[in-house]
Queue: 3 jobs
Job 1
Amino acid sequence: MTDVLDELTPDEPTDAPRAPASLNWRQEAEDGIVRLWLDCENSEVNVISETVLTELDTLLDHVKETQPKALVIRSAKPAGFAAGADIDSFAELRGEGAVAKLEQGHAVLDKLEALPFPTIAVIHGAALGGGFELALACEYRIGIEGAKFGFPEIQLGLHPGLGGTWRLSQLVDPVEAMQMMLTGRTAHDRKAKKLGIIDALVPERHVEAAIHAAAKGEMKHHAQGFRASALRTRAARSLAATRMRSESQKQAPRTHFPAPFALIDLWEDHGGSKAEMEKAEIASFAELLDSVTAQNLIRVFFLRRKLKAAGKGRSGIAHVHVIGAGTMGAEIAAWSAIQGHSVTIEDVNPEPLGRAVKRASDICERKHLSGIDTRDALDRMMPDPSGLGRARADLVIEAVPEKMELKEKIYASLRGKMKPGAILASNTSSLRLADLVDAAPERTRFAGLHFFNPVSSMQLVEVVSHDRAERETLDRLAAFVTGIDRLPARVTDYPGFLVNRILAPYLMEAMVLLDEGRSKEEIDRAALAFGMPMGPVTLADQVGLDICLEVANSMRSSLDRPVAETPAWLREKVEAGETGRKAGKGLYDYKGGAEPPKSPEPDPSTEIIDRLILPMCDAAVECLRNDVIHDEEQLDGAVIFGTGWAPFRGGPMRYARTRGLGECRDRLRALAERHGDRFRPDPGWDSLA
């Protein structure tokens, strides 16, 4: 990457007329080749904004007049090519205004595509969304090792809107193109080369040779296969589109996620004509932009940004020491090392330490780290059976089983061993910090750092305060969380904190429904139909029935209100070792091949959905009333990123407000009359209304 950074300092222009003034582009020319460097003002990453495109439009007119041998477009940002469109600039657009802006953007990229000399995009890092569409408008694409490409718009309830639907489906096998757009998955460097997205994949030191080869027309384009040719016909596209709709429907119905179906319709109806497809793309994008789904998903984007902003500043944490090499401890240690921290991990047994290193290696492979980056991450993570890292660490994270006596014993052993200023954080999910703080070596530098499993995939981390924690301690922990590419949710000490307090009723009510004779498949498929990423029965197995039981018992003893009773058979399962997926058997029998359902119920029981979902909304209201988190936006963001809670519905509070606060409260009262006081609405509903 050092070579890349050296190259990303373009020289002043040498043999071209002075380019028009620009805030976001820099131009240089050498050997008859013009280079435009995208360098968005006041930003660490490039985004494709209206200003970026307007400036590019003027620059293209200027470059065309100079008639160079070729035009090269690349990024001056070490972070990558371009992260996508500027969501701030289009989030508020509607109707004719959206159409007009999209038409302007199309015109700029069409102008780039039509230039009478070779145009070459050189991509390092990520080219996503609008950045990918900019690269697609060039004749050639040269990828630097580690480059990746994708259209994440589907995650915002949209599809590409600057010509990407046409250009990608014409460039590569249309089915592969559609899969990329429908799933939002990225194609990493070698995959992108195989598909034909890039014409060359080279290390930085060979970029100039590749540019000159493309400028001379000596670089060959990827040859498309027979299927790509066949899918140019409407009949073939209709057959493929039918299959795509069927697969999309299994994931989520059109009423919840209209964007995949709009994209399929667009390709099927207009995939044979550039002019028709681009015109229809603009109309479809503008219509989707006005949908409730897109507006909620765009809101989720801003919720993510708001959570991340809570971790601004420097943590002062370089060395992390993790006590406990179980599943959570191993994941915390591995992810911290991957993100650049020196890590020591301690356990009383050597076997878990070996498994922790293996887990770290697996995570590196899953995250597509290079061999060098994997080696460096593993070098930063050191098994420490003697606990020598305790004395050197800036942050000690305790991640041992949820036993008060065990945690207190560990805290006692840390007295006099931690260096001055070091922080002790507990990863507890069911114990109150108020019950642990007196055992901590330094009460003001003790707090909760509640990760979610698996840490390498789950974005949220709860930073949990208590009455005696210093503000500096909490600020440093939030900054640490942001520094390891996770989202800090600042919450107060409360039974289950925030996420588990809201998630627990979902899991516990599922156990009651099972006890009443409802099938686990029916319960899970009803939740999937609502939009949850995982049914509560499946989730209970994923979390671990033993953990679920601990959380339920903690809620029952800590909360002032009734909670669902735990069926006796659940305790018996845990005692028998049938604790869920990790044991091979829980509520589902994984060894026997009985996998949970993945498709939603087409006609789900509204009774089941309300019994699962409304108690979560009620718990959210309770948390707001008790100041567990600052506001509704942070609450919705935390629940979405901590549990995957139906993001297209905007979070539990957004859902409650959309459905109607009065209606939710009245429905809870009706459920309380039928099923007991656990459904009795929290007093906070009245003040919200």
Job 2
Amino acid sequence: MTETSSERKPVVKRQRRAGAGLTMERIYTTPGVHPYDEVVWERRDVVQTNWKTGETIFDQKGVEFPDSWSVNASTIVTTKYFRGAVGTPAREWSLKQLIDRVVLTYAKAGKDFGYFATDEDAEVFEHELTWALLHQVFSFNSPVWFNVGTPSPQQVSACFILSVDDSMDSILNWYREEGLIFKGGSGAGLNLSRIRSSKELLSSGGTASGPVSFMRGADASAGTIKSGGATRRAAKMVVLDVDHPDVREFVQTKAKEENKIRALRDAGFDMDLGGADITSVQYQNANNSIRVNDEFMRAVEGATSFGLRARTDGSVIETVDARELWREIAQAAWECADPGIQYDDTINDWHTNPETGRITASNPCSEYMSLDNSSCNLASLNLMKFLNDDNTFDAVTFKKVVELVITAMDISICFADFPTEAIGDTTRKYRQLGIGYANLGSLLMASGHGYDSPGGHSLAATITSLMTGTAYKRSAELAGIVGAYEGYARNADAHKRVMRKHAAANDSIRTLDAVDRDVHSVATAVWQECLAVGERNGWRNAQASVLAPTGTIGFMMDCDTTGIEPDFSLVKFKKLVGGGSMQIVNQTVPRALGKLGYTQETIEAVVEYIAEHGHVVDAPGLKREHYEIFDCAIGERAIAPMGHVRMMAAVQPFLSGAISKTVNMPETATVEEIEDVYFQGWKMGLKALAIYRDNCKVGQPLSDGKAKAKAAPVEAAPAPVIEYRPTRKRLPKSRPSMTTSFRVAGAEGYMTAGSYPDDGLGEVFLKLGKQGSTLAGVMDAFSIAVSIGLQYGVPLETFVEKFTNLRFEPAGLTDDPDVRMSQSIMDYIFRRLALDYLPFETRAELGIYTAEERARQLETGSYEAASSADDLEDELETYAQSAPVTPAPKAVQPAPVQVHSSAELMEAQFGRTADAPLCMSCGTKMRPAGSCYVCEGCGSTSGCS
């Protein structure tokens, strides 16, 4: 059964104007000049292929974009947002058409619903919105670009929260509503805690099934429908309160399934993400979170007991050890990354509508938290667009743009469609909005602040405070014109209390330099005005701000970093006009070095060093105290897990909702460390927190060779356990060998490498230190271990990946012309072995080259044979024509041919596999964006819109 148009969109009467309407101020535009006339337009061909299969998955010729837009941005907009069948006259072909389709719809609705004082103000609004979108100052969330101005339902929201009660009708309706939302390409979350537990009786006298049993049906439904009818998984969040009697079963659901996945994988089944056999396991289509309250957290802190309560009458039916349950939660997260944590009392303490109902759940990415059966439309600002040439933040312009964008977002609720009547009703009554930003990581680096530093925290906090304060100030002004939200009257006291909490948090910020001090000054004035206007008018919106993943729209705005995330890496993968690709050092690096006072010569040397090594450790001329400014999400100086938590805590008091972010932890992280991260999140006042431990999931592709090496299906056998053992290939009695003498920072040594007759390395002997010394003994033992590993089939490149870049003394200059600098003896040994025994293609992926190859690269731009120099020069010329002109140095190198994204580039640089899925559309490795993943090649996400 499908909904009719009248069921989907009730008739909305034009609201009576309470005031004279907004007077719109020009920010960027000039009277009498249309924004389209201020840019240079060019035609491009967008052809997209799956690099693994060679299949062309998209082809549209002659699309029109400003010449300042990158190839990646125009590709993603063309493939994702242009409407109409490809190859027909109805197909959009210009960015002008896309922006007009959206902006003109907003401008007309603003006039129709009485938002503007005059028609001239409506025109200013239209032009300013057009200019900001055209110049990548901000972007609406994806559903706006999909739907607004088309014959389709005008759905503008990406985030939905549903509800389910303790009845079969409600449970079956939950399945139906989720299916409709998934079909439309969005995601939803809900709390299952109203469903009685498996320890309680039904009215008929039988025992209840419990919420976990009903999760199976919802999981199967999500896996069948998928998101938007595509191949990627649906986006959904399932929440359970910590005092639910079935909480332990809920905690273990995905951990048990992960063990099943491992067993099936070891038996030869294809259990990778999207694999043929992954559908045989359950609960894989949702993120799971435990909703903990302060009572439970205090019980954990005090090591006391905690009561699990019946859903029917609230009585305690089981008492558990709080710390034991806390350990089980952390253990499950260690095993499979689920469940995450949501802090119930903190969430509801910042709730503007408690008289209407509690906040019980969130959207799939945990940034939108509001009433049941509600939705939120999002928009994000590109923070780098507000960084002045003198590295100050343009707070005044930022404030004006927030006012413009929040006005547009509120207008959209007037004409929007919603997937269910209940969601539409709640959203129109409470008008929740979610303004946010992207590119924080780049902004902090460019302005000389470490991501996990007091200066970085302070600047992020002041910008977020200014954003939310301005959004609520404009909301209060709109309330004076078109009225406060319908649910405001009954929640007025609570709403004012939360506004005062935000303002008080702003007053508690301690600024550290002139940049954040100026922003804080503007934010303080804005909050004072917000409180005064709100006291008089009320507010138009129950919520105003969140920090979303900004995956696809981040690429649309050509952002280097998404949401609140730090920079992913210092070296980027860049597509070129004509189809080539390069690896290039992030251009925020030279800007940051200039801000720190380094000379042009030093800046060029550091950039060249980063281009080769991927990090700044031991970069020539760079002070150690400045290393933290260039810390990234992955790499040699990856930001510590608690560094991410501290940044979240810095900005959380200035958000209506929460933050979409996963705290990545190394594979070596312990259960105790996860317990501490979750506990500190509560102490620091976060609303939600999720972790991901590297390699904790089987369902993540690690390499192409994995599928090829997959074992053949195993026939049934009496023995339940099947073992696969490697076979040792011993060296012959006489074998060729090579002895190399070396010197690292004055320390002398010898390395003898023995080979098989077919030239494969089979043994290594190292002589270092005096015979009989502890060092000599350790090196002998290490040599034996490596040699046996080689003979049992461990690839040499695996040892090279693990032991290069190890840092310990002695370290420094060597006497080897191919390896001039070494970070340790191990670093030198395995670089030398790589040069002697690995083919060029493999070494290139690891960033290891001979002196001759490096000299060739400086002369021709290529590490490979000179015959390819002409082709490379053509690509470099094309790149120079398409890239924006800046005085900063660009360390440009050809990307390895096997690399198709920044994630794969970093794998090649550091020799470590990135835990991220492959894109279902184009096959490239995705990278983190908030609590999901996004593809740099086509903009697809792993579950978030």
Job 3
Amino acid sequence: MCINTGKPVVKVKPDQRVFRGERVTLTCDIQGGGDIQWRYSWFRDGNTVNPYTTSAEFSFTADRVSVSEYSCRGERSGSHTDFSDAVTLTVSGLPTSTVTVTPDSPVFTGETVNLKCVINSYSNWRYEWYKDSVILQTSERYTVNRDTLTIRGATESDQGQYWCKGQRDGRPNSSTSSSAVSLSVKDLKPKPELTSDPAGAALTGNTVTLTCRMDPSTGNWDSYWYKHTLNPETEKTETNSYSLKIDSVSDGGQYWCRAGRGKPVYYTQYSDALWVNVTVIPKAVVMVRPDERVFRGETVTLRCDIKWGGDTEWTYRWEIEGTNNQYKNTVSRTSTQELNISSVDLFHRGKYTCTGQIHTQRSQRSDAVTLTVSAEAQASVRVSPQPWLTEGESVTLICEVSGSSKGWTFSWFRDHDHLSDSSRGAGGSYTLSPAALQHTGVYTCRAERGRPAYYTHNSSSQTLWITGVSASVSLVINPSRSQHFSSDSLSLSCEDQSNSAGWTVRRYTDKDTQTCTKQTGSGCVMDSLSTSDTGVYWCESESGEKRRPRNITVHDGEVILESSVDPVIEGETLTLHCLHRSTNSPILSADFYKDGSLIQNQTTGEMNITTVSKSHEGFYYCKTERGQSLHSWISVRVSTASSSHLVIGVSVGLSVCLLFFISLVLLWRHKHKKAAYSVTECKTTTKTQ
């Protein structure tokens, strides 16, 4: 049965929000209950926790973090009041505390150690420090500044478990005890290890990284650097590495480091000295095989050489600047110093440079080598001293590749046949000494180089004319000129002052060597010339002797140059005509050229050079409004008379010199005998006395 009284009210001390460990007192106040003796019942979250007590107060310690609702009611004579309204009691945990240690454990004897007690909420804390469950008292070595415990000059006796706790005047009046932190103190000073990257010799212009390495288990350190001396005034402070820019050899030498931490700074031992040996940076050099000037299809090897005393392997980097925008590329190589192009083409032309690298260090870039690639290689032949000679004299044929001279070997051909002693001309020169009649012929050469071999085209032909001391056979050409129009007729014959029998006309063309197809006795007739009839023609005996080779050129154009088929004798007059096909007579106006240069223009169709000399030898052609002739080689021979005069002059000179020498010898002998006679006469006179 419910008593008609006021509703009970629950009052809470110290507050509805308390901290774990605090004492809480709940009071059940029955409104209008008077001085009647009541019994009280307490409920937590609807469950009875303290029934029928005579005290209106219910006290307990908040021993766990929780949120609960408390209510009460009063009873008397079997009747009870209504339940009070529920009061929420919130129990919070105490502020936590943690300990941090600077520097990180382990520490070393002599270091200053700072332990900090960190409480994450509220303020105005008083801090208590404990070591191995014993509260620490301040002293010269142990000082407390607010939240920090400082241990000066740590010793091994300071090893142990450290923890802290906070106290304050307000609520909450304490924190939790921190977890214990183990402090380890080592007696031996640590020593860092100093290393360099790259190791070994350093090259000027590069950077060397020095690393001062401490055992990671000893915590964090700053590094102090020293060069050439341990004077602290030379120190530099960085982290654990020091970038050394190598500008000159003077940047080399001894380097040290040591580590330090804390305030005041605690220093480790010095590292062992590290020598940084500095070498002047070498320069890369590009070498090209077979040559910087090559031809399409050749195999080319570019090699990057670096002269350096070290034994470390270089890696190489090639850079190519092409001659056109389609080929600008960088080729990298990491293990080989050669760049091989198996079949070079025109787009490989460009400037090639290379650099070497050892770890992070680079050599100087090489000078650029310009690779020139031509479409095709052409050999050419020249003769020294002249293609006209008499048997017994010497002559040298020289084979050259235009614009390139390196690495070639040469093969020689006469009348299309490979010469068995061709190796004599491997160096580019083929010498006949003494020259014999059978050496007369048309010579060509071919060059090759590289592996696999690259061959040039065969050279243009060079005819050697070797005549006997008394050559009686002549090749007579009608009409007597070296150039002829196609479709014209031409006759050639071998004429001997004594007997023409047994001589035939032979010819050499780009295709082969053969006997004139329309042979008539010792002559040959060609009714309708074609350009394929261009070649060298000569007389050949049954025994293989060759006489009087002559160049015949057939032109299918409108203009030819008329010149003598025979060499011009030095001192004589050279006459050239420019002929037109339709009239087969000199043209009224023509330009004449020698070796590509204009020497006479727009005069008559004739040019005369009086008193010819060796300087007039060369290729001649003429040009008119109707067209241009082919080129003809004009040879100039020393006259027989000049040669005879030279021989006589030399003979007379030698004779005079010889007579003069004999006179000197006779004079000397005469004086020598006279002196000897005087000495003998003197000795005889002395003996008589």
